[in-house]
């Protein structure tokens, strides 16, 4: 057996002698070691080819993300979700809504009842505005109906005050007062013709005096004083057409006529003041002297025919003073 052991030792020593020796053995001196002297073997991609279809194409499939985020990096707005990966790509815009602020949510819950009340009030205001518009339309129709039938002079004061806001209210009221005056005068004449004895002047005066308040209202409207001035003169003329002939002019009639003209003079004074005021704005300006001559001529005729001693005496005096002030 000894010869077998000797044979194995000879073979092992021979094998060690056959091993090649390194061309540059490592030195035990670590200070002389240079890492750059050791060249790394060239990189060889054994999985992909070196053409564009390998590494470059792989890089083109990688999603471009902001910064140095990796494939597993989570976007700043939260995890990216997708409903259908086949039809909708995963992008950074498909992010979840941020959680509402608890303070903001509490504030919104607190003011919600007040917002509901505000909305209800808005609806009520709209309904009320619609109802008001309907009432205004009905009022306009009622005023048109009154004017069409000549009842403007007989409406209550509450309705008259609303109708006076129209720009043409003075002309409308003047026309209807003139028409009513004509109707009253015609009715009085027809009544007188149906009687065998004459009606007293007091009856005519009291009937015609019903128009004086309406004439005063007319004088208060824009452009109304000049129209009211003419209506007062016409009202006195309607009274003059009753009596005076066939011995109907007695003391009672003369007293009633004088009282009636005294009341007309009071109304005429206010009208003359309005016409002489600087803010009257009559166009054309009032020719005061012409109306003074007209009233004086009519007064002289009535004094001769009916025995009327005075005919608008105070109004005439005021008109003369106004004329002298204008001429100066």
Please give the structural blueprint:
Elements: H1 2-18, H2 55-60, H3 102-148, H4 157-163, H5 169-193, H6 201-208, H7 212-219, H8 224-240, H9 251-276, H10 288-305, H11 313-327
Features:
328 residues; 59% helix; mainly alpha
| Molecular shape | rod-shaped
Gap between N and C termini: 174 Å
Number of helices: 11
In total, the number of strands is 0
Q: Give the radius of gyration.
A: 59 Å
Order of helices and strands: HHHHHHHHHHH
Question: What's the quick description here?
Answer:
The protein has 328 residues and is an all-alpha fold.
Q: How would you describe this structure to a colleague?
A:
- With 328 residues, this protein is mostly helical.
- Among the domains are: 102-149; 168-327.
- 59% of the residues lie in helices and 0% in strands.
- It is built from eleven helices and no strands.
- The chain has helices at 2-18, 55-60, 102-148, 157-163, 169-193, 201-208, 212-219, 224-240, 251-276, 288-305, 313-327.
- The N and C termini lie far apart (174 Å).
- The mean pLDDT is 77.
- Residues 7-17 have a biased composition (Basic and acidic residues).
- Residues 28-67, 83-96 have a biased composition (Polar residues).
- Residues 1-101 are annotated as: Disordered.
């Amino acid at each position: 057996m000894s010869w077998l052991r000797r044979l194995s030792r000879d073979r092992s020593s021979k094998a060690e002698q056959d091993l090649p020796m390194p061309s540059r053995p490592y030195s035990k001196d670590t200070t002389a070691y240079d890492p750059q002297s050791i060249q790394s073997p060239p990189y060889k991609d054994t999985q992909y080819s070196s053409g564009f279809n390998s590494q470059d194409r792989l890089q083109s499939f990688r999603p471009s993300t902001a910064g140095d985020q990796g494939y597993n990096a989570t976007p700043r707005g939260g995890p990216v979700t997708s409903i259908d990966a086949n039809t909708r790509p995963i992008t950074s815009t498909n992010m979840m809504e941020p959680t509402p602020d608890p303070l903001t949510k509490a504030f919104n819950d607190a003011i919600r009842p007040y917002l509901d009340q505000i909305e209800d009030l808005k609806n009520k205001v709209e309904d009320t505005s619609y109802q008001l518009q309907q009432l205004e339309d009905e009022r306009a129709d009622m005023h048109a109906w009154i004017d069409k039938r000549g009842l403007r002079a007989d409406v209550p004061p509450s309705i008259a005050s609303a109708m006076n806001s129209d720009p043409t209210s003075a002309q409308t009221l003047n026309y209807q007062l003139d028409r009513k005056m004509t109707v009253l005068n015609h009715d009085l004449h027809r009544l007188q013709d149906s009687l065998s004895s004459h009606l007293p002047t007091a009856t005519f005066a009291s009937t015609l005096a019903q128009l004086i308040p309406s004439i005063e209202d007319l004088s208060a409207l824009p452009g109304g004083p000049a129209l009211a001035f003419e209506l007062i003169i016409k009202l006195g003329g309607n009274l003059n057409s009753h009596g005076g002939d066939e011995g109907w002019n007695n003391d009672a009639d003369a007293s009633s006529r004088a009282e009636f003209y005294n009341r007309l003079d009071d109304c005429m004074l206010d009208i003359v003041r309005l016409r002489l005021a600087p803010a009257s704005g009559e166009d054309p300006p009032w020719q005061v002297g012409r109306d003074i001559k007209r009233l004086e001529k009519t007064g002289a005729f009535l004094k001769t025919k009916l025995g009327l001693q005075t005919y608008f005496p105070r109004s005439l005096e005021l008109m003369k003073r106004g004329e002298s002030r204008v001429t100066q």
